[in-house]
Amino acid sequence: MAGASLGARFYRQIKRHPGIIPMIGLICLGMGSAALYLLRLALRSPDVCWDRKNNPEPWNRLSPNDQYKFLAVSTDYKKLKKDRPDF
Q: How many CB atoms lie within 10 A of CB 45?
């Protein structure tokens, strides 16, 4: 047991206890979903600035009808008007 690799020990545990297969699947699904959500936040959020030289304040370049929220229940972004000054 001490010389067995991690993959071999994992495979042996799966063979002994097949009831943990759904748990492993759900854990992998949760980790994948969290990674995809973090990637979405990093690429689409106006709070994240990747290019400080050309776009130092990306939140000022958003138009009122840009939807950056993940879920908007009752807001129709196509009908919004600009109500803030240009900087």
A: 14
